[in-house]
Design brief:
heterodimer; A: mainly alpha; ABC transporter involved in vitamin B12 uptake, BtuC; 14 helices; globular; B: mainly alpha; 2 domains; 18 helices
């Protein structure tokens, strides 16, 4: 019984939150890795792209709510996703035309593009703050819980409850669908194959008649979709604040680097690696351990390796360890 | 300095004069103080980027570490708290550093293989628990002492001008550590890694209450020598007699003269730095740095130790930035960790360097004064201008929203400014010769 309780507590406080956060990071890291693979720079504006996309989702959610359109028990934000993807794609394609294209034609060094993307970050951040303000926005409507802790306890008679939030379920299913769609696109369609070819060897791809402008445009559209989805899932799960998205940059970069920049499969794995390490290291294990060990051994302290304030230190350490010892990432051997 | 530079500096000077005449001299001098500080920060960043081509996004970390130095050097001593756990906390930190050093030594001197991995992992994990075991109880006791007003370990209570070099030292040590780790990496990895280090430094300052009371803010840090307090000046009969003699308002005169003293002090620091940097830039060392920046491979082929030189310039740049961070906190008289955001203290400084002209020290100063003015004037004049611009609109949600978000316009404006400079004048307002 105690072992079961320990397992349920572990699932409830570690596994499910980590899986949900990992899925959000994975979708975000896919965008970073795709931009890195095709456009060959680390996009510092990525966090604010996500914030912009999420903001548009929130605006459409408000519109639908005022019109009385609802897809309960699913959150209205899901309905708003496609509209936001269109708007964000237009923004990213416009940015590419006005800003990035010039440096691409010049074949500027990647670091110049990084600095340029910091400029884009300022502009996007300003846009978001001007349009929606700086306050926190909570836009998660729809069902609160798939399984609530109380119900679970009543069914099973265990002391520990297992809660699955509606947003967790939405995150997992949406992220899975997104990844399946993306991998299908990259593996099976002509455009997807040309993107992979372009990423592997630009010159060879150009020689074989791939149109680079088209590849770049498709990349931005997909990146927009990923930014909107990742940002919205995160915002539904936690909440939306314009400046919080900037700080997501670090775990997302860490996820992309862990998997090997430019490798989509690696980005997904990296997202989960970062999320699980973060939560395992910052979770207070006292509860779980008390169930497992005999009573006299029960710990007094919280059994927490690092306080939750330091969660960024975890992503950072993973990033540094991977960069120093496996510079090509965990899943990019021999490249 | 050529004619172009003189015109540009005169133009920026006019901005400050106009602010003084139209708004108030207090505001103008305030902005000038922060502009001078920004110029020093920009000089430090320019050393890293302009001399060596290193793109670091951890500027805010150096600035915050400099501020932390003021807390330790000039904070009021709290002997009870220190007696409760000060030495033990220091010992804990020494253990942590020794553990990391032992792990690095094991990694360097042992033959590669499974044994080495196991030993290094064992040292790190064992060291971590040992450190926590020593450090945590000490911190608990320090924070337990009078948490409403203290709860921190206290400082040396020295004059805060001593904190300036110490701030530089703090930032330099941190830069040495991060440089050792990250300088060998590709340039955009360096950017990501430094972003992470800065984030950790800020988190530590926010949540380690024993150092600086974290987000509860540490107030009441003394001013640097020789800056007087306005209240003391106004109580000084000699000063009052001077004011009546010249027909001046004692309150305005005292606030303006305090600001004037800060401006002179900061300007002296800036002047000395520029002099040193110009000499360095035109010395064989400066030529070597530029050679490395422009072509690492050929510089290495000429026998220059590229990695070592990168590390040196990275540390020196961070030290300059850290010193300015200490100057900033000693002037404010308090450490407010919430203020240290990457947008304000990393990317804004970058905009100053690039708009001013990377590689040119005078350009960084110009960028600091100009962009600093732009950023801060919005605080004071932004709502006024937005109210004027929206005067025609009917009162309502839209109007109040527009007035509320007026300060955010500066993000947009500065982002656009950076993009325009990068596109049309990538070498900045004052290009490197």
């Amino acid at each position: 019984m105690d072992l079961l309780n320990a397992l349920v507590a572990f699932l409830n406080f570690v596994f499910i939150p980590a899986a949900s956060y990992g899925a959000q990071l994975a979708v975000g890291a896919l965008g970073v890795t795709l931009i890195f693979g095709i456009l060959r720079f680390s996009n510092f504006a990525w966090g604010d792209t996500m914030a912009f996309g999420t903001m548009v989702v929130i605006l459409f959610t408000w519109l639908f709510q005022s019109l009385g359109v609802s897809i309960a028990p699913l959150p209205t934000a899901l309905l708003a996703l496609p509209f936001s993807i269109v708007v964000t794609s237009v923004l990213l394609l416009g940015t590419d035309q006005v800003v990035y294209r010039f440096y691409r034609k010049q074949r500027a060094k990647p670091i110049i593009l990084v600095i340029v993307s910091a400029g884009v970050m300022f502009v996007m951040n300003g846009l978001v703050r001007i349009i929606i303000g700086t306050e926190e926005q909570n836009f998660a409507d729809g069902g609160r819980f798939l399984i609530s802790a109380g119900d679970f306890k009543a069914w099973t008679g265990l002391a520990e409850g297992l809660a699955i939030k509606g947003t967790t379920a939405v995150t997992m299913v949406t992220a899975l669908l997104t990844m399946v769609a993306l991998f299908w696109f990259l593996q099976k369609t002509r455009t997807g194959k040309s993107m992979r070819a372009f990423s592997d060897n630009e010159d060879l791809a150009l020689l074989s008649g791939i149109n680079p402008d088209r590849v770049v445009q498709v990349t931005w559209v997909i990146a927009a979709a990923l930014a909107v989805i990742a940002g919205t899932l995160y915002g539904l799960d936690k909440s939306f604040r314009p400046f919080i998205y900037f700080s997501l940059l670090l775990p997302i970069f860490a996820a992309a680097v862990v998997g090997g920049l430019g490798s989509p499969m690696g980005a997904v794995a990296g997202g989960f690696v970062v999320a699980f390490s973060e939560i395992v290291v910052t979770y207070a294990w006292k509860k779980v351990i008390t169930y497992v060990v005999p009573q006299s051994w029960a710990p007094d302290s919280l059994m927490q390796l690092l306080s939750t304030d330091y969660k960024f230190a975890v992503s950072f350490s993973i990033l540094i360890i991977v960069l120093l010892f496996m510079p090509n990432g965990l899943f990019n051997k021999g490249k | 300095m050529n004619t172009r530079a003189i015109y540009l500096f005169a133009g920026v000077g006019m901005l400050y004069v106009l602010t003084g005449v139209l708004l108030s001299w207090n505001v103008s001098l305030n902005i000038l103080i922060l502009g001078l500080l920004s110029a020093i920060m920009a000089l430090g960043v320019n050393m890293q980027w302009g001399y060596a081509g290193l793109f670091s996004t951890g500027i805010v970390g150096s600035i915050a570490l400099g501020g932390l130095a003021v807390v330790f050097v000039s904070g009021n001593p709290v002997p009870e708290a220190f007696a409760a756990g000060g030495w033990q906390a220091i010992f804990g930190l020494v253990v942590a550093v020794a553990g990391i050093a032992a792990a690095v030594a094991a990694w360097t001197y042992m033959a590669p293989g499974r044994l080495r991995n196991l030993v290094v992992a064992a040292i790190l994990i064992g060291g971590f628990f040992l450190y926590r075991g020593i450090f945590d109880p000490a911190v608990e006791r320090i924070e337990a002492f009078d948490p409403a007003t203290h709860g921190n370990v206290g400082g040396f209570g020295l004059n805060s001008i001593w904190a300036w070099p110490v701030g530089g030292l703090f930032a330099a040590v941190a830069a040495w550590a991060i440089g050792k780790i990250a300088l060998g990496l590709r340039e955009d990895y360096l950017a990501i890694a430094t972003l992470g280090i800065a984030e950790i430094v800020i988190t530590a300052i926010k949540s380690e209450d024993w150092m600086s009371r974290g987000v509860k803010n540490l107030v009441g840090l003394p001013r640097p020598w020789p800056v007087p307090y306005e209240v003391d000046m106004q109580a000084d009969p000699g000063f009052l007699a001077f004011c009546t003699n010249w027909g001046l308002n004692p309150i305005t005169t005292s606030t303006l003269s305090v600001k004037g003293i800060y401006i002179v002090m900061f300007a002296i620091v800036l002047g000395v730095l520029i002099w040193l940097l110009q000499r360095a830039l035109n010395s064989p060392w400066g030529r070597m740095m530029r050679a490395i920046r422009d072509n690492e491979v050929s510089a290495a082929a000429m026998g220059k130790d590229v990695k070592r030189q990168h590390l040196i310039i990275f540390i020196l740049g961070a030290a300059v930035v850290g010193m300015s961070g200490a100057m900033y906190v000693s002037m404010l008289g308090q450490l407010v960790p919430g203020e240290y955001t990457p947008l304000r203290f990393t990317f804004l400084i970058w905009i100053m360097v690039i708009v001013g002209g990377s590689g040119n020290n005078w350009g960084s100063v110009l960028g600091g004064l100009l962009v600093g003015w732009l950023w801060l004037i919005v605080d004071n004049a932004g709502p006024l201008i937005m109210s004027a611009a929206t005067a025609g609109l009917a009162d309502g949600a839209l109007k109040s929203h527009l007035v509320d978000v007026a300060p955010q316009l500066r993000l947009l404006t500065l982002g656009v400014a950076l993009l325009l400079v990068l596109r049309f004048s990538p070498r900045g307002l004052l290009p490197e010769k």
